[in-house]
Structures are given as structure tokens and as C-alpha cells.
Amino acid sequence: MAFKDVVGNERIKKILKLALERTRVPNSLLFCGPEGVGKKAMALTLAKTLNCLNLTTDSCDECPSCEAIDKGVHPDVMVIAAEKQEIKIEQTRFLKQMAYLRPMTGKKRVFIVVDAAEMSDSAANSLLKVLEEPPPYSHLVLVTASPFLLFPTILSRCQTLAFSAIGREEIEKILLERNFGKEQARILALLVDGNLDWALDLEWEEVQSLKEESWALFEALASGDRSALFLERFGALAKAVQEEFGRTLGVFSSFVRDILLLRLGGDPAFLLNPDFEPRLRGASAAWTVRRVLGVLEELDFVLAELPKNLNKGLLATTFFSNFGELRHV
Amino acid sequence: MSYKIFARKYRPQAFEEVIGQKSVVRTIQNAIQTGRVSQAYLFSGMRGTGKTSMARILARALNCANGPTANPCKIEDKDPADDKNKPCDYCAAISEDRAIDVLEIDGASNRGIEEIRALRESLKYKAIYTRYKVVIIDEVHQITKEGFNALLKTLEEPPPNTVFIFATTEFNKVPATIVSRCQHFEFRKISHKDIINHLVEIAKKEAITITPASLALIAEAADGSMRDAQSLLDQAVAFSGENIGDEDLKTILGTIGQDVLFRSSTAVLEEKPEDVFPLVESVVAAGYDLRFLFGKLIEHFRALLLVRSVEKPEDLLLASAEELQALRVQASKATAEDLLRYLLALQQAEAGLKYSAMPRIYLEAFLIKLCHFRKIVPLQELIRDVESLKKEPQRTLPKSPGASPAGAPSARGTGHPLPAGDPLGGPSSAAKTAPPPQKDVFKRVLEKLATDRAPLAALLAQYSSVMVKDNVLEVFFASGRGFFVTSIQEKDIRAVERAASEVLGRETKVRFAEENATDGGPIRPGRELETALKDPAVQFFMNTFKAQVLSADPIPASREAGPKGGGPTENGT
After folding, report:
1. In a domain, B569, yes or no
2. CATH number of A3-162
3. What is the C-alpha to C-alpha distance for residues B88 and B346, in angstroms, rounded to an integer?
4. For an interface test with B, which of A57, A132, A170, A328 has the most B Cβ atoms less than 10 Å from its Cβ?
5. Which of B39, B121, B132, B501 is the most buried (most CB within 10 A)?
């Protein structure tokens, strides 16, 4: 895709175009911003543009070079990502070795490090020198959603481009173009919270069933007498269900947060689940503010722990029992 | 020539150009002039303060054709037209990184013992081309322990005319044995003034127009690192061309408007939790990084606290008169103590926000918590409550948990705010004091014994009940476990007596005995509760209903005293 096909972040595009026009694209770049806003796509487009045979400030997507990059077979454009849990020093060493070699076929070498925060400490340190003084023909682009996890020494060597979440309206617009109804687009846009990748992935029925199922589980859990439903579903967490568990908890968070809003007498226009308003209103009566805050804390805890290497079933069970305890506060 | 970022283009090339490190520069210059160059230097300090630059200049100063000199040849960015200003061959070679005797090693990639061994091997040979052999190891903190140790001997007595220069941002990771063999220089943060002056110079050379206010913003964001400042300027130029507007710069820095901060603090101070939602919505819609906002909020509450507690905050705060007035108005709405509590809670929650999967909801929930903070009872009051509870007859109900305020944060989790007076601590600690204090006394005795007479303490821990009567502490073991009593020796008893006297604050005798073997014998007065707790029926009841026994009262002349003693239950389902 060319720059015009990358959605949102007009500001970033403007900066990159300006830099391309003056041929002063920084050699060490850091793309940071929330998940799913097109950071990697932007980096790839930049790589294509730098190597494009026809254009200089955009990619043509037609020349052999652009095509090769799209296919991921361009010898001078490398995407480095964690193979297992982290990006290892062997990978960055290889990157460094390549970075000091002149481009083979293209004009510039471009290295894109995806999820740069996953670099191990030693891997990150080994990039310091090359980030500080990269050869003029090599560009390094670090991509991450959590720049604060990187060392300050890395941050200070890169030109940072901060991507922002895709605006809700823009996502709504894109969803409308993809033949969603107006109301549907609004609800979906609220759900994804600026994560475009996710938005493009969504199917209305799927989302509806996810939310309905979550609501059923949530209600069962909250009411207490049918709370075992939750354990039946997630108590013994198989690999396949893990992702679903995370998503369900995400929806839970938005439910609880909406209950908090209603409970405090906030403006219903700010609900994250406007389609569930009557139900949420019904449920909110049974919740004290204190319980809501407690449950939100629990949810946050579980969601933060979930990606780690833990016994997921145990995590689900802990959540279940803590949720139960909070019924009494 | 290809484009170079400012940080590289304006890398200092002479000692005088190194900004903000006067003492270091002077020491090194003097050392060169007096011919007392050390064999090893260690430069430490935060990023962007000139360590690597200094190392390279030193390498040139030692090897310059006119040298060793404190003023090595000037290196021009472009090729000089006339021969007069041309640097000597050595300086040129070093600055272009092609001098074979000046090794600049990346410590982060060449960190193992193998690499260090190879380095040692190469040091056997004298400098071929230049006067000194200079080994610069950048990011030296990344060298492994073995690597460092392999260096020790060489570093202590290197071959003649060999100079080591280490540069690192993490001094604490360099072993003491290495540090003691080096001259250590600490590079300081560069002051705002120095940064601004340098940026003005760059702006002049690059024909950039930028306002002083913007420069001040950059300097503040750079936080003492010249490279950060230069990067930001670079970014500003990339974004808006040669004319940098204040607004553009704010976009780049992601500066958050004062009004957002004031709106948040108003919501908190005026306890209007419902206002939090539109506020966060507006921040999210504007695409701000919530973590950044959070950092700003911390600064904002610090400013409020400062205004509230210092008479003349002007000197400590970068704020205009209007802002100061607004801060004053806000700060007057709360006591300094409250503000401090908000500030602490904010700081504790910062890490939580960083790792939160749903930062938006986290932030909303947290701000709402802050709105409820004032309802938290100060710790002193809680302690007073507990004290008064203690004075009342032992078997009264602890205050019901409902007494603690709604909306108070719970105690779990690291990133969650836990103000000085944990409100949840109240009811539970009150409950702990409810059982007879005699048990507590003995527990404390045991704790004392555990330090120097651990075996004895372990044995005594098998006790079933204790009783304090006047100056006698009676310890009972369950019936059938009389062998414990017999195994306690005279000197053990004395040790226990000493500990008990200390705990009780008066001379105390200790007696050990086995409990009455007769099942269900007369219950000792004052021990109804313990007896009741041991009763299987009561235990079954407690397990089934998650109940707690709060009090047990003797029923005269009846053996059913225990089971019926199961008092009012709490937490029953």
C-alpha cells in the first residue's frame, strides 16, 4: 500500500513526506503508538518508498522493488520480530552485520524491528551503536506500542514518531464503507478503541455473539447463583480458549466501566456499550461503587497477567473467586 | 553529502565544544599538558551528555601530529578548501574511524570473554601508526562479568602508550575492581541554559527560526540530555520546515493543555466522579497518550501541593502569574495532607497504568477512586477506634465492615493506590484484637524466643491454650501431649519467663501443664471461646458457612456451652 492507503495518522504521513522530499529521512526511527494503528504498515510503506524505482515520495506498488517488499523477499528490507518470547541478541547482531553492508539491489537497506520492546536487554544494548551512527544507506525503524519499556538510551538515539489511535469517526467511516449499518459501525468503533486492525477483522455477528455471550457470563457471575457457568467455560483453560478469555474479560471491563458510569449518574452518551444500556441500567442497581472499582482492579490484574507465562486456568479460577468475594463489599 | 541528524552533525569536535562538563574538560586538558595522562578513563553519566564525544576528542588529542595537545586539529564538517585548516593525517584518520590504533569497540555487542581475549591479544603489539594505542569501549556496562575479569590485569598494567577509555550510562553495573583501576569522571546533566544556548547556535547555522518559548519547551523535554534536545529540534524541522511554530512543537512533544489538567484536578477536589468520563473521552479523542497525561497529572498535583505548602512557590515553579493564581484557587480546596495523599496515590498507580491492558478504563477508575479519597478515615482515627475497642469488654463485635468508606481502594496489587491509612486495614485489625489478648501475649513471647531459642519456640508452638493470671503465665498442651511438658527443662522455663516478663512488662512466672484429660471437663473460665472453637460441631458449622466465632458465653451448669457459643456469623452465604 502507498501512503494514501495507510489509514489515519495524517500528521505522521506529512512528516515522512516532508522528510522524503528533502531526502532527509532519519536513519534511526521509532514508531510508537497504540496497537493496530498501522505502524508496521507505515514502516513498510516507508521502506518501499525509499527503494521505489519510479517515485521518490511515495511507493508505486508496481515496480519490482515494491513488489518484492510486498512479498517480503526484498534482500535489503528485513523485518525482525520475536521468534519466541523475545528478540534475541543473535537477531540484532545479524541486523547490525547487515546494516554495515551496502544495499544489494535496492537503494537503501531498511530494518524494521517489530515489537521492539520485546528485545532482550542485551539485544537492545547491542543496537545502541548502530542506532547512534547508522551508515547513510541503512535505515532502522523500531516499532512498538510501549516505548517506555525501551531504554532511555535507545529512545534518545531515535527520532520518535508518535502514532495516535485512529479516531472513532474515522473508524466509523471505514466501517460504513465496509457495509456496516450506521448503528453497527458506531458500536464496533466504540469496542475497538482506536485499534484499526481489529476493526477490520470484525464481523458483526461475531461481535454480537461475543458480547451476548460475555453478557450472559457476566450476569451469571455477578448474580452469584449461576456463577459456575463461568468456571465451566474457562476453569480449565485450553490453549484455544485463552484468546477468547482475554476478549471476554475485555468486554467485561467495558460492562463494568459502564455500570460505574451509570452508578455515578454520568452522561449515558459516554457509554461504551450503548446497545446494552437498558440491561446495564438494570444490573447497576446491585453494584456499589466500591465493588465496581474492585472488580475493575481484578480485571486489570488478570488482563495484565494473561500474556505472561502462567497457568491460565488458575488465573481464571482466581478471578472467579475474587469476583465472588467482591460481591460482599 | 547525505543528510546527517543534528546530533551527529553537531557532535563536539574539540574540548571547548563539550558543553556543560567544565570540570571534566579542565582535568583532562591539564593532564595532557602536564604529561600525566592516565592509562584508563571511565566516563559515566546519563545519555547525551558527551561521553563518547569526549572519548573521541581525547583519542585525537593524544595522537594529533602537534600533540599530545589539549587542542587537537579542528575537524570541519565539509572538506576544507585550503590546506591551512586541514587536520593532520592522524586526526583525520581518527575522526573518520579508520585509524588502526584507535579501536572503538561497542561493548554491548562485543561483550563476551572471547572478544575481550582477542582484544588483549591485539594489545601485545605497539601502536603501528599513531603515538598512542587508544581503546574506547562504549556501553561498557554490557560486558559480561567474565569479560571484565579478563580485563583486570591488562587494565592495571597495560603496555606502554596504551590508553583505555570506557563510556557507560550505567555506572552501577561496572564492577568495583574495574572502577578502581580507572580515573572516573562523572558527566553531569546539561543545564537548561546551556541546552538553549546550543540550540540557538544550531538554529542560526541552519537558518531555523524558533521562538524562545519553544526552545525552553525543548530544553525541558530533553531533561538534561543534549542529544534528546537535538533530536527534538530535528523532529520539529522535519515536521514544520525551517519556521517552527509553537503549536507545531506542542504537537510533536504531545504537550497537554493546562485546561485538561485543571479539569481533572477540579473533578477530584470537588468530588465529582461523573465528570471524569467526558474528561477522559476528550483526551482519548484528541489522541493523547494516556500515560503521558498521567505523568503531567503527577506534575500538576505536585504544583498544587507546592503552592499549598510553600509561601513563595514562584522560585520553584515554572508558571505564569495567571497559572499560579489558578493553582492557588485550586489548592485552597484541599489540605496539604490531602494533596500529598493524592500525589502519592498517583505515583503508585503510574506503573499500573503502564502495564494496563485497558489504560482508558484504568485511568477512569483511578480518577474516580481519587474522587472518593476524602472519605477515607485517617489512620490515626482508625487506631483510636481500635484502641477504644480494646478497652471495651473483650467480646464485643468489631465494627461492621460497612463502617469503612465506600469506594476505598482494595489492598491487592502493586500498582494500586494504597493511601497511608489503608481503610480496609480497619475492620480486619479490629477483628484480630477480638480474641483474648493472652494468646497474643504468648505469641509475642514465642516470637522473642524464636530468634535465639528456635527449637524451644517450635516445641512451645504446639501449645493449645494459655492463660495469664496475676503474675503467672500458664501454658497448656492438649490432653495426651503431656510429653511436651516433661521435655521442657529448667533452663528452658527460665528463658520463657524472661521473655514473658519482657513482653508483659512485669516479673512473670511460667507454668506448663497438660490439659485435663477428661473429655468435656469443666471449661476454665475465660477459655470458653477456645473450647468452642475446638468443638467438632462448631468447626463443621464454620467450614460450611464460612463463619467466624466472635464470642462465646458460658451457659451455667450446662455442657452444651461450647456448641451453642457459635456467635453471630459474618460472611455467611
Report:
1. no
2. 3.40.50.300
3. 57
4. A132
5. B132
Neighbouring CB atoms inside 10 A of B77's CB total 13
Q: Indicate the domain borders of chain A.
A: 3-162, 167-202, 204-326
Stated as kind and residue range, the H or E segment containing B202 is helix B192-206
Residue B163 contacts residue B41 (beta carbons within 8 Å): yes
The DSSP code sequence of A247-295 is HHHHHHHHHHHHHHHHHTT--GGG-S-GGGHHHHHHHHTT--HHHHHHH
Q: Is residue B571 part of a domain?
A: no
Pairing label, strands B465-469, B472-477: antiparallel
Chain B residues whose CB is inside 8 A of the A152 CB are 46-47
Distance CA B305, CA A298 (A): 31
CATH number at residue B287: 1.20.272.10
Write out the three cell numbers for A138: 541503512
Kindly report the three-state secondary structure assignment for every residue of B99-158: CCCEEEEECCCCCCHHHHHHHHHHHCCCCCCCCCEEEEEECHHHCCHHHHHHHHHHHHCC
Residue B468: helix, strand or coil by DSSP? Answer: strand
For A216, other C-beta atoms within 10 Å of its C-beta total 14
Do the chains contact at B5 and A128, CB–CB below 8 Å? Answer: no
- Can you list the alpha helix ranges (DSSP code H) found in A140-181? 152-155, 168-177
Q: Would the pLDDT of A186 be above 50?
A: yes
Q: How far is A257 from chain B (nearest CA, A)?
A: 7
Residue B407 clears pLDDT 60, i.e. is over it: no
Question: Quick check: A144 contacting B, CB < 8 Å?
Answer: no
A109-136: average pLDDT: 90
Q: B261 pLDDT exceeds 50?
A: yes
Task: Please report how many Cα atoms fall inside a 13 Å half-sphere around the Cα of residue B269, on the Cβ side.
Answer: 25
Question: Taking the model in full, what pTM does it have?
Answer: 0.65
Q: Based on the fold, state whether residues B57 and B144 are members of the same structural domain.
A: yes
Q: How far apart are CA B152 and CA B171, in angstroms?
A: 17
- pLDDT tens for A135-162 read 989 999 999 988 878 888 888 888 888 8
Please tell me whether residues B163 and B173 are part of one structural domain.
yes
Strands of B504-558 (E only): list them. 509-514
| Overall size of chain A counted in residues | 329
DSSP assigned state of B551: -
Give the one of B231, B251, B407 whose C-beta lies nearest to A293's C-beta.
Answer: B407
Q: Which residues of B touch A158 (CB under 8 A)?
A: 231
Give dist(CA A46, CA A27) in Å, integer.
Answer: 12
- Searching chain A, which residue's CA lies closest to the CA of residue B240? A15
- List chain B residues with CB under 8 Å of A153: 47, 139, 169
Pair B44, B179 in one domain: yes
Q: Does the structure show a pLDDT above 80 at A86? A: yes
Q: How far apart are CA B366 and CA B348, in angstroms?
A: 11
Closest CB to B407 among A156, A289, A298? A289
Q: Which three cell numbers stand for residue B570?
A: 459474618
Question: Are residues B181 and B69 located together in one domain of the fold?
Answer: yes
Q: Which of B106, B225, B413 sits opposite A129 (nearest CB)?
A: B106
Lowest mean pLDDT among A48-62, B200-214, B369-383, B512-526: B512-526
Q: How many domains are contained in chain B?
A: 5
> Are B244 and B17 contacting, i.e. CB atoms less than 8 angstroms apart?
no
Asked whether the ipTM of the predicted complex exceeds the cut of 0.90, the reply is no
Provide the CATH topology of domain A204-326: Zinc Finger, Delta Prime; domain 3 (1.20.272)
Q: Which residue has the cell 587542542?
A: B71
- Give the torsion sign (CA, B316, B317, B320, B326): negative
Q: Is residue B130 part of a domain?
A: yes
Residue of chain A minimizing CA distance to B109: A126
Cβ(B300)–Cβ(B265) under 8 Å? yes
